[in-house]
Structure formats: C-alpha cells, structure tokens
Protein 1
Amino acid sequence: MIKKISFAVALGMASLGALSGQKLLCQEDGNVTEGKKRSEEERATKKTNPRPGPTPGQQRQAASSKCILTGLWRNELGSKMQIQEVKGDGTFSGEYKTAVSLAQRPIQPASLNGSQHFDKAGQPTFGFTVNWKSFSDSTTVFTGQCFVDENGKEILETMWLLREKAKGPNGWEATRVGTNVFTRIKGQNVDESVRSDGAR
Ligand code: BTN
C-alpha cells in the first residue's frame, strides 16, 4: 500500500514537471544534477583528459626535498667535512677537518668513510668513521640522519662516540659521546669556505 502511494506520488510529480516544461532533477553523490547528463560528461572528460603529471616546478620541489650527503658541511663547533660522491651501494668517503682536538699534535685533515641508506622520503640515516691518524690515536664514529625542511635547507643531525687511546682495558674515561648538527656550506673543499672576513 505504502509502495503504491509513493509510486503514484512520484508519477504525479514527474507528469506535473513534464506538463509545466521543467526538467526532472535527481540527486547523485549529494549534488543535484540534471539527470545523468553531467556524470556522463565527466566520464568522457576523464577519458580524454587524464589527470596531468607534476609540473616542472613540482618536480624541482620534489628533487630539492631529497637530502644529498655529497658536499661540504660545517657543524656548530666550526668543524668542516667534505663528502665525496655517494656510490651506488651507498658507501662514501671524504675528509674531516675538526675545529677542536684533545691531541697534542696540530690538527690535520683526516679521512672519513661511511655509508648511507636510500629511502623514498630522501631523509636517509647514515654512519661514518673518522680515523684521526694524521695527528691523533683516536677514532670517532658518527651516526645520524639527513633532513630537509620545506625551504630545501638540509641538516645532518648526528651523534658521535670518540675513543681515545687508553693504556689498558676498562678505561671508562677513554670514551666520549656527543652530538653535532651539520649544515651545508658552499665551496669545493674543506678549506675553501674559510674567509679572512669570517663570512660564510
Ligand atoms: C682528537 O682530539 O683526538 C681527534 C679530534 C676529535 C674531534 C672531535 S670528533 C667529535 C667532535 N666533533 C668535531 O667536529 N670534533 C670533535
């Protein structure tokens, strides 16, 4: 009975609409559309105009949001390091010039060797060892992660462990621990960014 009444009411409304020259509206996905006409047009448009890929600007933005270890870096102590090209397997080498030292001998550049992950987000973790043999018996290992902010500025957030040469085992005082944050500097090698006017 209820069905019959509803059908009769619907039929009546449709006839009234037809008689008065109005179009029959129906509701689809929460939007009132003119029958099925609009969704058919939308389907046709999607087929011929698929969603466009990233614009050159968006591609540049995506590339600059990836952190690249290769280059010249400085930490808050004023130490500098240059990381050479990262190989396909993630390994890299470079040179570290520390601004501070415990050693008696004058500071010299030291070699570093490490490896990084390759992650989709371009914010990889990495680790490297600095062998200070050019002026010290110590060894330092660094581990950290590279981050890029929304302006493309990269930082290397690291933690390090330094082992000094002890006379024998159980020398608790022979190990130091700390953190360093590196930012990228312009230049080609470890000494290049040292300017007499102190500008960076
Ligand atoms: C030494 O003093 O025996 C060698 C130099 C150690 C320098 C340390 S490594 C951790 C910290 N970060 C730096 O840039 N320099 C110091």
Protein 2
Amino acid sequence: MPTPSNNRRDFLSVSVSAAVATGMAQGGFFSSAGGSEKKKLGVALVGLGSLSTNQIAPALQTSQHCRLAAVVTGTPAKEKQWADKYGISTDHIYNYERFDKIASDETVDIVYVVLPNSMHPEFTIRAARAGKHVLCEKPMANTAQECRQMIDACKQANRQLAIGYRCQFEPSHLKMMELARSNEIGTIKRIDAGVGFKIGEPAQWRLRQKLAGGGALMDVGIYALQACRYLTGEEPVSIIAQESKTDAVKFAEVDESIAWMMSFASGTTAYCTTSYNLNGLNQLTATGSDGFLRLDPAFGYTDANLENSRGKIELPKIDQFATEMDDFATCILENKPSKVSGQEGLKDLLAIEAIYKSINSRAVVEVERV
Ligand code: NAD
C-alpha cells in the first residue's frame, strides 16, 4: 500500500502535544465532575493511515467528549497493533468487508472516515445506513454529485454529517473571521490565500486521479478556497483559473499547481494559489479599505499566527482535531447542526468543479449554487 511522503506531514504538523498541553481545558455540559468515560461518544476510525495514526488517535486520548471505540482497517497487521496500543478488543475491530456489522456495535456513535478521497462516499453512506453519525475527512468527495448522495443518505438515516474542516475550530482562524466580518479592516477588498508543499513518493494515492479526484487543489488548495468563503461569509459567484505543470511525469494524472481568482457579490476578489511542487506556501491575508489581517503560517496543525497592522495577536493553541470532534459530539448530543456540515463540503466541491472547468475551458465559470 503506498504511503504518503513525510514532507506533507512536515508541512502541516508540528508537535501536537504542545497544543494538547495548553489547549483543551474547557468542560462541556455532558462532562460530569469526575469526567465520566461512559458519557463520551464512541468513535470508529475508518482508515488507519498517517492522519489517523499521528493526529486523530492521539487527539481522541485527550478529547473531552469522544473516545476511540473501534477501528476499521484493510491491513491485518494493523489490527493487533491498534488493539494493543489502544486496548481495543477484537469485537470492535473491523475490516472493510465486515464494516456493516458496526450497526450492532453499541459502543460506536460516530464513524470517522479517514480514507483516500474516492472512498469517502461509500463509507459515509454505509456508516449512515448502519445508524451512525459521520465525520468525514476533506475533501468530502471527488464530485459534488457524490456530496449530494452523502448528504441524502445521512438525512434519510436521520444521522448527522460533518466534514473535517479543522481550521474552523482554530482560534486564529476564528479571530480572523470575527474581525473580518466585524468591519475591523473596513470593507474587505481582496483576499490572498496560498497553500502548498512538495509532495514526495510518486506512487502514493494522492497522485492518482481515481483515488484523489485531483491534485494539490483537492488536497490542500481546498483550505485556501474555504478560508475565502468563511472570511467573507459569502459564496464565490465566478471563478477563473489556470494550471501550470513543470513535471508531466509525476503529475501525469493530477494538477501540480493552480492559480485561481474568485469574485464575490460584495465586490471582494480572492487570489488563490496551490501547489504540490514547492515549500513554504502557507499564508492567508485579507486586505480591507482600512487595514489588513494576516495569518502566516496559516493552515498547519498547531502554528497559525495572526497579525494586523498593530502587530501579532496572541491566541491560545488548541488541538484542532480534538476540538473538531468535541464540537461534533456536542452537536449530536444537543441535536443542532454542525457549522462544518455536509453542505459546507458540497459548496467547496462546487467551487472546485468550477476551477477545473475554468482550466479546461480557459474561460470565466459561474459557480453552481447548492
Ligand atoms: P494515508 O495514505 O496516510 O492513509 C490512507 C489510509 O487508507 C491507509 O490506512 C490505507 O491503508 C487506506 N487505504 C484503503 N484503501 C486504499 C487505497 N486503495 N489506496 C491507498 N490507501 C488505501 O492518508 P492520510 O494522510 O491519512 O489521508 C486520509 C484522508 O484524510 C484523506 O482524505 C486526506 O485528504 C485527509 N487528510 C486530512 C487532513 C486534515 O488536516 N484534515 C490531513 C491529512 C489528510
């Protein structure tokens, strides 16, 4: 099985432990004084690759409202490893074929889909049909049509669906959002957003169109795209995009680098770039009639750094994955919709499809509405 390069990890991660140490002291309404384990919702992780191993499983050890209850893997060797490391008994360990039996596993409330992108729809729909709430990694799916099928399946099963948009729980992003929308810098005139890294191992699934649905744009460009949407609180109306390729062998199937411009109804224009063939592109700036807000670095796991014209704005560090899961658990228990619902994933895919359409047609493309 191909594995991703370490340099993707290097781009996103710094030690999560520091964030854990400083972050997550807040108690929820369903945490008892003694922090009863019984009241935590059980999470089944589907796909035990890099993200599950290095970020999500550790975050589940510190989560206030979730616990690791089960795992689903296609790699038999991982069954024992995970059972030993996390004390999971064999009746809570599934492979992809046996997955549907999770319906009768009462310890599992949430299925967290952490597989290659093309597998997100199948496992989201199977999880919903098994009666579980679903947290699905980004990008939600390879196409907007699949996003709609996932939303419908969860709706029919009366289960909640959220997408792993961790930045929407990160204090610097939240502060930037609040300031941008509260006229702190006047009317936002432009946004500049860039995210990229140099991808390694040429055989990995991220470079296979069928599994990944696209290249840098699907994997990390989506962070830039989404940030423009949540800073403005608007959907892009039209998009023009261009792709550049310097390595036609490695990037034979997927995009290497894309630049795109998005227009919003209010008059804001966003200039975005993404790439799989450079290092250090990881910034987000909103410029208004009266000033600027900047995140640099912007999209990593722990190191977002916010500043305005007066200097750095100090904010607490948190574990983005633990906070994201805790928020989803709260939404389930309080029966309220997640702010990172399937609709958010669908809106991103509609904009991504407009970007690819613009590249192919060399024209400005209107973004389809939900
Ligand atoms: P990974 O390659 O490390 O792990 C993928 C897992 O899927 C592996 O356990 C692998 O065995 C399994 N798998 C099953 N069928 C496979 C197939 N046909 N080909 C390859 N692997 C297969 O990937 P990852 O980095 O853990 O990413 C998983 C998902 O999480 C992706 O959708 C990715 O976009 C997303 N992700 C999100 C973030 C974030 O910050 N939210 C960060 C990294 C990855």
